[in-house]
Fold this sequence. Notes:
This protein is of the alpha/beta class. It has ten helices and eleven strands. The chain folds into two domains: 5-196, inorganic pyrophosphatase (n-terminal core); 200-325, Diaminopimelate Epimerase, Chain A, domain 1 (Roll). Helices cover 37% and strands 17% of the residues. The chain binds manganese (II) ion.
Amino acid sequence: xxxxxxxxxxxxxxxxxxxxxxxxxxxxxxxxxxxxxxxxxxxxxxxxxxxxxxxxxxxxxxxxxxxxxxxxxxxxxxxxxxxxxxxxxxxxxxxxxxxxxxxxxxxxxxxxxxxxxxxxxxxxxxxxxxxxxxxxxxxxxxxxxxxxxxxxxxxxxxxxxxxxxxxxxxxxxxxxxxxxxxxxxxxxxxxxxxxxxxxxxxxxxxxxxxxxxxxxxxxxxxxxxxxxxxxxxxxxxxxxxxxxxxxxxxxxxxxxxxxxxxxxxxxxxxxxxxxxxxxxxxxxxxxxxxxxxxxxxxxxxxxxxxxxxxxxxxxxxxxxxxxxxx
Length: 326
Ligand SMILES: [Mn+2]
């Protein structure tokens, strides 16, 4: 998989035209959002030493170890180029209220929802935005050079979005990107160790989470995590990432959903939907969500909708099983 030369040329020429570049990504950032943001900042700084590159947005708890965001002022946006990473939806950009009439670049690997940038580099075959940025570097024919620090950030993004190369989004191109990052001294050991680390609360929470797994017909599993459960056990919403894939380890499970009650909401949930085969993106978009065919997110406003979502998953799985038995 290669990134079109013309897109890379346009990217470099846009970056070249601006003295100040502000890099955004989605709210509730994961390692791909932060890794690609800090990685791209390092790439631009390394290749264009006279430019000011700022990273915007809040860092959630549990991901501070990866790096720091910059303090960005409103006036910094004057005559700045804005680059948005890892989100197909303008609404989901952390700090989008500050982006006014700026020239915009989007780099993303999600299914396209809307067009909001002057230059959009989108490749849904990429496991992660970090993989896509790595391919841009590889395909830049020496115009973009990677530092070991940038390679390490991008490695973290790829490891995050592939679930350490377990998810089906892991491809030959993923490993080619990783090989390239390793050849540029990505510190894989440090990243792997940090991404595997849990607090005692988080480790104990795995046992609580396992107890919350409910099984439904056609290989659907669901898990509900209430705010009170998290608070009592000293777990943040980010801390629940470590249990997202637990139901999928069950042999009989094809698709699963984790409902996480939103803070101060009393019964509204963020749903993380995952799959080993059936396309669950079609379910997610019916519930104010989106993402990928095998991993999506959705928003649930009451218990009725929660039940509806599980019912939709049962249907999608039934169709998948029927198609498979043909
Ligand atoms: Mn991503």
